[in-house]
Design goal:
With 94 residues, this protein is α+β, with helices and mostly antiparallel strands. 32% of the residues lie in helices and 39% in strands.
């Protein structure tokens, strides 16, 4: 079963897809892993996948969202000049 969610952050749209029971061990109480895929829906190439167990599903999804937000911040801030960053650090706004 697949489930999707769109996460928007600073003008970026990220699709989060979770494939439940992506890998299942065929034995009683066997390991079940879920595949999480997070990618940018725009023109950039941000793409991340991860396999996790049910106990870590929430934390791993939140961690991947955090990684995507840090990436977006870095990409946006990279376009700013030194002077813009300096003035913003002093509280100036556009």
């Amino acid at each position: 079963m697949e489930m999707n969610k769109v996460h928007e952050y600073r003008g970026f749209k990220f699709n989060i897809k979770v494939e439940l029971n992506h890998t299942v061990e065929r034995r009683p109480d066997g390991l079940r892993q879920h595949k999480i895929t997070l990618n940018d829906m725009g023109p950039t190439n941000y793409y991340e996948t991860y396999l996790c167990e049910t106990d870590n599903l929430l934390d791993d999804i939140n961690g991947m969202i955090n990684n995507a937000e840090v990436w977006a911040d870095d990409l946006i801030d990279e376009r700013k000049s030194f002077e813009e960053k300096l003035l913003e650090s002093m509280g100036f706004k556009k």
